[in-house]
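Q&A log
Question type: sequence-to-structure
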Amino acid sequence: QVDRYLYHLRLSDDVLLDVMARFQAEMVKGLGRDTNPTATVKMLPSFVRSLPDGSEKGDFLAVDLGGSQLRAHQVKVFVEGKQSSQLESKFYPTPKEVTQGNGAELFDYVADCLSDFMETKNLKHKKLPLGFTFAFPCKQTKLEEGVLLAWTKHFRVRGVQDTDVASSLRKALQKHKASLDIDVDVLALVNDTVGTMMTCGYDDQRCEVGLIIGTGTNACYMEEMRHISLVEGDEGRMCINTEWGAFGDDGALDDLRTEFDRELDLGSLNPGKQLFEKMISSLYLGELVRLILLKMTKEGLLFSGKVSTALLTKGKIEMKHVSAMEKYKEGLTNTKEILTDLNLFPSEEDCVAVQHVCTIVSFRSANLCAAALAAILTRLRENKKLLRMRTTVGIDGGLYKTHPKYAKRLHKAVRRLVPTCDVRFLLSEGGSGRGAALVAAVARRLAARRRRIDAALAPFLLPPDTLREVKGSMRAELEYGLKRETQAKATVKMLPTYVCGTPDGTEKGKFLALDLGGTNFRVLLVKIKSGRRRSVQMYNKIFAIPLEIMQGTGEELFDHIVQCIADFLEYMGIKGARLPLGFTFSFPCRQASIDK
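Response status: OK
Response body:
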């Protein structure tokens, strides 16, 4: 009877492969300029184009906003024989009045926390670059700016959506700067997945995917620029923030969502949004378990049908409870204690059944996450045109780190779904904050390189006045070349071609053409039809010109040309025909007529 309730939460590998294929299709849709507006998986360009190369150094700050806490970091990057970094952090609470207040209050709070952190680390009165990790979907047009598209998870701050969050942070920091308090330069706005990828990329150059499985869930990866039609240019790669939490918001996963998923969604802060995230992340799994247990109890399958007030209360079962109930040895003992605290007085059978519910719910989370990740890994492998690929996934998030069995389940599922990818899962040390600081470090390195390149190219940058001078000089030379009395001294010779008209469509017949000017010589047969079925057909053959002929006598060159013409006519099966010939000769000639 318990399994009957859980049947739709169990996903076979065939179903996961189907989810993987659906997500691949959504990725393509999100990357396309024309299809992106209606895509649920937004595939947002991050403008992070380069991973750390080991030459970065200096002191950097990072602020990480988006989870259950706000984190401030100082990152010292060294290059002493080999690259290394040192991280110091401080954690601040994110109370409800901040996460569900107004925008000015939120960013003032962030600035106040950063000021406090800098004071504790004796960093005030230093000008420091900062990377801002912001774990919400933003449309970026530059690395250092981004407009918030929507709040997710437990955040619902007024007056921030559709505004530049990096600019809002700068304004809040400016108040401190005005009081000579702190001086911070916001160089990068970074999604937490991108920060995670950069953190792990610093330690492992193979890392090209960032994955978060915590309060929310999301992933990023390095995409080929030629596939990102949302951004100009097709050279190199750019990190794409998939925002996969919204996968299924258009109904693409409706066949996999259970009655419990629907009930949870209706009671959430953002009904109809982030449906994939609501099946995976720690913010929702505890509540999902509560809803399942509540229905099973009401139908007499658990606790002798006796429902407690705690079981009826939203949020009473959290992810920490689910993790405790699934622990290897003390899981059943923990289960009994947790249920007793909820005034449910469980039997041994009840404890086993509840533990089973927790296992199925968290197992589905890991499997769905694995399916979407497998789609990204497959895309990376196909982009590289490899039969087998070795790569690293940088990963962070409380659910992945603290659940006793989640990591192993995820790894196994990924390896089953993409056997052609050898994946190393690398836990992010220092979270996404260190990565945000490293993005700022890379941005500073690239900006310094750009300044050096600009300085080297400065002589080639011609101002409008210089171009107008060149235009005037060129016009004068054209005039000299056209006049009989000055043509001999002109550098621009303006040689007459005796071509006095362009084709008018009445031309017809067969013609030979010769083309001499490069390292090869080309002979062509051109068939021209006029009238209503006007057309031009061309047949050609390329002949090499040996160096000894290129640098020999004129007689040798033209004898070689005639021999090539003869070979071509024989090749085309033309004998005894008299054909008009045009000769392209790519060298300056003083012509006396069109054929001399």
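Response note: The mean pLDDT is 91.
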